[in-house]
Model the fold of this input.
Amino acid sequence: GERADTAAARDTMKATSTQQHQQPSSPPSSNSAPLATRDEGEHLKCDVCMDKDKSIPLIPCRHLCLCGECAGRLMSGPSAKRLCPRCRQRITDTQQVYL
Done:
């Protein structure tokens, strides 16, 4: 009855799992390289304007997520609104880095 059904279901799941692990993975397609390159380029862009490269780590959280222009706008505003776009921690200072 119920034990046989459970055992049959377990055997079916085991067989399915084994088949999935034995299937060879497909080789990367020729289209994957341009996508990876594009993603890497986007990773370097400012989180706010998405145009210029990130160059300003925020203190104290140390997130590198803003370009100089967006960081300048952030720091020129009221201190209560100086929040990291990533973690929302209050920003006390910035630092210029050259990548």
Observations:
- Strands lie at 56-59, 64-66, 93-94.
